[in-house]
Design a protein that fits this description.
heterodimer, A: SH3 type barrels, five-stranded antiparallel beta sheet, 5 strands, about 15% strand, B: mainly beta, five-stranded mixed beta sheet, 2 helices
């Protein structure tokens, strides 16, 4: 969830409180920077600082889809200004550190223009995709949608509003190519010779916590391990190209793209 | 009531006088922690050895004090005769009994709403002189408190908060003065270092870290850029009583990442200053990063120790810089003696004979973003290094993290941030770091202890041949000071962004560190 991929940490405060650029600034309800020149400047800023996560046209990627008329965290321009300026707590979206007030409004103008782009037309059928998800795909063994399913993989209830269709397709065909930030598969062997493969839940200098592929939770001091392999770039999710036809992949993508929470 | 009286009767006598002589000879009373870095030499070294390599495994928390704050806590407490004096975010102060962790008094600072700063209302500590405790408040005031009650004796404005001046550093008491630095490097302030009369609060001297037009150094700023040139002084320095010299680092020039409007070396940004303690007169300066465009403040703690360089013994200043280079400077002249990188860096080929960086191409921020090591938080930062005379090693918490530096517009407006760009993380690269032990004379790596992530807390070395450190994941740990071997650790449950201290409480050595919003005190527990 990165709109402005800039770290807020001048004097070493990556997790510090976000302080407004100018405490005296009264945020107008409507965007004062909406001329064609502002839009052009906003696009330039967006491409330099936001597109890496949100995609060049706001189609999403690591960050949320912005090519949408209604943004969950930013129902109006004032809210969008605050999201860009202050970030969204508890998400990967940081505060906009490298943009001043004028540039923030230019970004607001450009992001709003993305929402006016016609939504992407997808070739698949979401209803068929839903059936495939629940039957042949066995997807619900590892993913929760609207409270149903297993919890090893990421929840997908709102995945359509957070990831582009292209990103979803890539995740289905080659899961390791779209791993989320911080995702790590590990394989460890204890001093007693017990081997476990799982996903890292947490780690510090002295210990590691994992969930194994059956959902079991484990915590180890590293001193008690004979081996700890970090399988960077690996995912326990199988690619679907061997189990689904291209048309069925289209259907699955269409279903996942339709998952937008309670919208 | 009777119970309270009985309990108080067991406490040590409170609030002894802390004279300048005691501060000057703090090495002779290792049971107290009298200045920000433990002594004027700023070594963050404790002469206590009750806790050592053999028994450190028996170290346990003996009390925890929780602050009522959601702000980031970077405080480094002082301890005098069994009482801990602790600053809290914004500039509040609490006196704690170190036997029980119970408060004795509190001064609550209400920060004025016009105060602003880049990085939260952090506060790193207090100073003590005679019968007063001194704290810099976030709204840029210096406050003197009665050491027995916490009642305000005087309160003076140091800089105008509306313009972006704030105080986050612990003051430093020397002779009859209180030296205090300011923050505000992201607001286009004109930086300075001040000294105030300890008794009255009257300003004794000011050294402007950005010269006025016509003054020496003003030629290193193009156009009118000097008047908004920043160079703040937001971490506590060191003092050499024999030379009556204050050593203090200065921060980045403003705007941070766009140097187009401030061509030149931009003195005295990113410098170590040597100032006369009585007058604030400049004796010498050494600039680590001329014309900085990466926000590499040189506000790290200068450490005073001897160094033998090319066979000659020098009274030296040891300096681990945010730009990822380690420096040895002659304390009398500021002459560069030795230096080399101690953390991952890609911006300089090395240092020339005078200590100036030999810059590599493609190491400047660009509108599209340029990948450079270290990131803006640097090879190290404000958190303290340590020097142990016992091992003759310099310990530095290190970061091996790169960033993508962006150059942007910079338009000055009083009181608003004045950055000229920014920096994003390198996607897919986890931040890493280590506690490193360097040979003080050369900076040669003697050992390192790798951390799970980058360093964000200071280190303390002790006569028990230990180095204490903290991690982003909340581990407080002890290493063998000679080898770096881990000997003990405790999970505190929250990020550690503070410096450890050590002292005696009722004759028993404690080690304390802030973690999250709490102070943890540890002592040996019989098994």
């Amino acid at each position: 969830m990165r709109l402005a991929c800039i770290v807020l940490s001048f004097a070493f405060a990556a997790t510090g409180q976000v302080v407004p650029f100018d405490p005296e600034y009264v945020i107008p309800k409507e965007n004062p920077r909406t001329t064609p020149a502002d839009l052009k400047a906003g696009r330039q800023l967006f491409l330099g600082q936001c597109a890496r996560c949100h995609g060049s046209n706001g189609e999403g990627g690591r960050g949320a889809v912005l090519a949408h008329p209604r943004l969950r965290h930013a129902p109006d321009d004032e809210a969008l200004f605050l999201v860009i300026r202050d970030g969204i707590k508890g998400t990967e979206m940081p505060a906009g550190f490298a943009v001043d007030t004028r540039e923030t409004w230019q970004l607001v103008a450009y992001v709003r223009s993305l929402g006016r782009i016609a939504p992407e037309q997808l070739p698949g059928d979401p209803k068929r995709g839903r059936q495939l998800y629940q039957s042949q795909g066995h997807c619900s063994q590892c993913h929760i949608v609207h409270g149903e399913g297993g919890s090893l993989g990421p929840e997908l209830t709102e995945i359509g509003s957070r990831r582009s269709a292209a990103h979803l397709r890539a995740a289905l065909l080659n899961p390791a190519s779209t791993l989320p930030e911080g995702f790590l598969q590990v394989r460890l062997i204890t001093r007693q010779g017990l081997g476990i493969t799982g996903l890292r839940l947490n780690e510090d200098t002295f210990s590691i916590q994992i969930v194994d592929l059956n959902g079991g939770l484990h915590s180890f001091f590293k001193d008690d391990l004979k081996e700890l392999q970090r399988e960077t770039g690996k995912s326990p999710m199988p690619g679907v190209q061997s189990t689904f036809s291209p048309a069925q992949v289209d259907d699955l993508v269409a279903y996942l793209a339709s998952l937008r929470g309670n919208e | 009531m009777r119970l309270t009286i009985c309990a108080l009767a067991l406490l040590p006598p409170l609030a002894a006088q802390v004279s300048f002589d005691r501060l000057r000879q703090s090495d002779s009373e290792p049971g107290n922690w009298l200045t920000y870095s433990g002594a004027y030499s700023a070594r963050r070294y404790s002469g206590l050895n009750q806790i050592d390599r053999a028994n450190v495994r028996q170290l346990r928390p003996v009390w925890v004090y929780q602050m009522q704050t959601t702000e980031r806590v970077e405080t480094s407490p002082l301890v005098v005769d069994g009482v801990m004096y602790l600053s809290e975010p914004g500039g509040s102060v609490t006196a704690l009994d170190t036997l029980t962790g119970r408060p004795l008094w509190k001064y609550v600072r209400t920060v004025r709403k016009e105060a602003r700063g880049c990085c939260g209302q952090v506060n790193r500590g207090v100073a003590i002189l005679n019968d007063m405790v001194y704290v810099g408040a976030f709204d840029s005031h210096l406050v003197a408190l009665d050491i027995k009650s916490g009642i305000v004796r005087w309160d003076v404005e140091v800089g105008e908060p509306k313009l972006g001046y704030s105080i986050t550093a612990a003051p430093l008491a020397l002779k009859d003065k209180i030296v205090v630095g300011i923050a505000g490097g992201e607001y286009g302030v004109r930086g300075f270092l001040d000294a105030y009369d300890a008794r009255t609060g009257a300003r004794a001297w000011r050294f402007w870290t950005v010269p006025a037009p016509g003054e020496p150094g003003s030629e290193t700023w193009s156009g009118g850029s000097a008047k908004i040139g920043a160079a703040p002084t937001w971490v506590t320095g060191a003092y050499d009583p024999g030379r009556n010299t204050v050593f203090w680092g200065t921060g980045n020039p403003g705007p941070d990442w766009n140097g187009d409007a401030r061509l030149g070396d931009n003195l005295y940004s990113d410098c170590l200053l040597a100032l006369d303690g009585d007058t604030g007169r400049l004796k010498w300066y050494f600039q680590f990063t001329p014309h900085d465009t990466h926000d590499w403040d040189s506000t790290e703690v200068p450490v005073l120790a001897d160094a033998v360089v090319r066979g000659e013994k020098h009274q030296a200043v040891l300096f681990g810089n945010r730009n990822a280079f380690y420096y040895v400077l002659d304390r009398g002249t500021g002459k560069f003696l030795a230096g080399r990188p101690f953390a991952r860096q890609t911006w300089a080929k090395g240092l020339d004979d005078s200590g100036k960086p030999i810059r590599l191409p493609d190491s400047e921020p660009t509108p599209e973003g340029a990948k450079i090591y270290p990131d803006l938080a640097g090879g190290t930062n404000w958190f303290s290094p340590s020097y142990s005379p016992q091992t003759n090693l310099f310990y530095v918490p290190s970061r091996d993290v790169g960033g993508v530096y962006l150059k942007g517009n910079a338009e000055y407006k009083p009181g608003a941030q004045f950055n000229g760009g920014g920096q994003s993380p390198i996607v897919g690269e986890d931040p890493v770091g280590a506690i490193r032990a360097l040979a003080p004379d050369t900076g040669e790596l003697k050992w390192e202890f790798k951390l799970h992530s980058d360093a964000g807390a200071g280190v303390l070395s002790t006569a028990g041949n230990l180095v204490f450190a903290g991690t982003n994941e909340g581990d407080f740990l002890a290493l063998d000071a000679s080898t770096g071997r881990p000997l003990w650790h405790f999970q505190t449950g929250a990020v550690i962004n503070a410096n450890p201290v050590s002292y005696l409480s009722a004759g028993r050595q404690q080690v304390a560190i802030a973690s999250g919003n709490s102070i943890f005190a540890f002592a040996l527990v019989d098994q």
